[in-house]
# Entry
Amino acid sequence: MRAESTEALGIDLADPRHYEHDAARNLFARLRGERPIWWSPQADGRGFWSVLRYRDIVTVSKNPRLFSSARGLGGHRIHDETEVEITQGLEASMLSMDPPEHNTYRGMVSPAFTAERIRRLEASIHARVTALLDRIAPSGGCEFVSSVAAELPIQVIAELLGVPQEDRLRLFEWSNALVGEDDPDMRRSEEHIRQCTKDMGAYALKLWRERLRRPGDDLVSMLVGTEADGEGMSVPRYFATFFLLVIAGNESVRNTISGGLLALSQYPEQRRKLVEQPALIPQAVKELVRWVSPFLHMRRTATEDTELAGQHIARGDKVVLWYLSANFDEEVFEQPERFDVTRTGPQHLSFGQGQHFCLGWRLAELQLTVLFQELLRRFPDIEPHGPVRRVRSNFVRGIKEMPVRFTPER
Ligand code: HEM
# Structure
């Protein structure tokens, strides 16, 4: 039954070209109507289920006992953890853990992301945005991803971790290589990713040792000194957390900044509203995150034979949650294909749902709010000017190059 239906239509949702060419939204809309739990066979003989409706993604996300995130069962990506990750001895991060272990590790990191701590970052985020925009202001044009969209989140994550700003481009390269396995611009070869993982591990360890000797007010110092349920954080677990924060905090915000600007340029009447009423921006940011859906999916593995929306799922099957599809589910969002910066109503699923709900959501929204407030105030006519190149990936919905132009500031 699985093979029949898929072969008939021949659609493989793991194929990164759907996302590189931005064709997935139409594809998902069609499948949601026809077969919302969709099977894609894979060459390794282990296919995967795609969960396409909002309500089914919520059901799966809220049931970690039946739908596990654990690395031992393959991890959070469509394809099981890579040979590189395993041979380099990387431990699982909290993203690939189930309760009760997950609660312990999340509890060690979450104090760094409280509303109060994030609020304290606002002034420095503002200063960073101002400096980035000052740099491009006289030119009237730039490559927006490298000049602005990528810079802000990497600077912020470097500050959070206590990494010197001059090392931030190394974090940037490592993060790209780790998520960019299908894009030759981001991961040049297996050797490249092996080297990146090794260098990043060595870098994280150096930082750990320095903070052991001289703790500061940063996240690494907090992890060095943390304890939960009578347990401290082991060095391998710290590596995993460091890697997770660099990737999660970097790719997602970058791609929402660039994808958000692209959307505002495609819908000039929506941009006008934000230029004329900047107070709308904090709410509009939620629509940008829905629209962009910067992480396309996360994955679970079924721990028992079960049923989901009438579809039998066998123990050990991979179950992939497509957030981009849920965020355009017509059952939940009124006119989902309408980009509306004043949209209220149901929460998008870009930050996930349930116990793994994004720990960095406040930090993400704050960066996006400050950035769009300043960008639209200073360059209300900024728009893409030249080809927009998307990342080839089934995991991040990203833009790697977007030239822009605007009226320069005197
Ligand atoms: C627009 C920006 C962002 C999006 C769309 C996003 C999305 C997500 C999603 C979907 C998950 C849940 C994964 C799952 O259920 O398996 C997640 C988890 C996580 N995110 Fe984010 N994220 C963003 C920004 C950030 C930032 C800025 C940080 C921190 C610097 C961060 C840190 C984390 C962490 C630590 C987790 C793991 C939580 C857990 O497993 O309990 N994220 N994020």
